[in-house]
Design brief:
With 40 residues, this protein is an all-alpha fold. It has one domain. Keywords: Membrane, Transmembrane, Transmembrane helix.
């Protein structure tokens, strides 16, 4: 767990921004899939 945190903290801001964008995109897709199943 601590090693994971160190790895995250040692990454570049650009990589962190890309990770955050990816997590946000997954969250949005999951939210849409959960709350608007009629679209699929």
């Amino acid at each position: 767990m601590i090693n994971d945190l160190r790895t995250i903290l040692s990454r570049s801001p650009k990589a962190l921004a890309q990770d955050a964008a990816g997590i946000a995109a997954i969250g949005v897709m999951m939210t849409v899939a959960l709350y608007m199943p009629s679209l699929f």
